[in-house]
Amino acid sequence: MPAPVPLGTRPLEARALAEEAHHAESSRRPALCSQLNQLMGDVVKQAEGREAADLLHGLLEGGGLAGLEDEKGRTCRAAAVEGLLSLGFPYALEVSPEDLAHLRAQGGGRNRLGLAGLLLLGLGATAQMASQLFIVDTPSEWALLQGGVSLVLLALLSKAPPKALLYRMAQALLVLVAGLGVSVSLMTPVDAGWLSGLAGLAAVVLLAHRES
C-alpha cells in the first residue's frame, strides 16, 4: 500500500472551489461542485487520515458546503461526510448527528422518491401499451404513441443527471405528454391514455420532491 501523500495546497484548492461555487451562477455551480467532490474523494484516497479528516471538517464547519450540489444531484456535504466515514476509526466517530442525518436523507428518502416516480411511470406506460395491444379491439394510435414516448422519457430520466439540461427537458415534456394523455382520456373514455397520464404526473411530483 503506497504511503499517504502530503496534502500540499489541496486545502486551499478545496476552500477556493467551495467559495467559487457559492458565488457562481446557477448554471456553473454543479460543475464546480463536481470538481470539489472529486477533490475530496482524491484527498480521502491519497492523504494521511488526520490531514484528510481535518480538511473535510474544515469544509463542513459553519455550513461551508450548504446548498452545494454536483451534476449528479449529490451534495458536497454528503460527499464530505462519506469521506469521513470511509476513513474509519476514529475519524468516523467525529461526524456530527446532523451531518449523518443529511447523508441519510441524501442517499435514502429523496432517492427512493425518485425511484418510486420512475417505477410508477414505467408501470403506467407499460400497462397502457399492453391494454392497447392485447385488450381493446381497436387500439388508439394516440395511446400507443403516448405510452411509447413515456417509456422513452423514462429512459432519459433514469440516465441523465438530475441537474442536466436533458433531464429538465425530459421533465417538461413528460408534463406535456401526461397532461395531454389525461385530457384526451376525458374526451375519449375508451382511450387508456389516463394510465400513463396519471402515472406521469405523479412521477413529476415525486421527482420534484426528490430534488427539493
Radius of gyration: 22 Å
Low-confidence stretches: none
Structural class: mainly alpha
- Global mean pLDDT: 85
Element string (H = helix, E = strand): HHHHHHHH
- Profile the largest sheet: none
Describe this structure in words.
It is a single chain. The chain has helices at 10-23, 29-46, 49-60, 76-86, 97-134, 141-159, 165-187, 193-211. The protein has 8 helices and no strands. The protein folds into 2 domains: 10-95, no CATH class; 108-211. The radius of gyration is 22 Å and the shape is elongated. It is mainly α.
Question: Keywords for this structure?
Answer:
212 residues; mainly alpha; 2 domains; 8 helices; elongated
In short:
The protein is built from eight helices and no strands. It is an all-alpha fold. The relative contact order is 0.10.
Fold blueprint:
Elements (H helix, E strand, L loop, with lengths): L9 H14 L5 H18 L2 H12 L15 H11 L10 H38 L6 H19 L5 H23 L5 H19 L1
Helix pairs in contact: 1-2, 2-4, 3-4, 4-5, 5-6, 5-8, 6-7, 6-8, 7-8
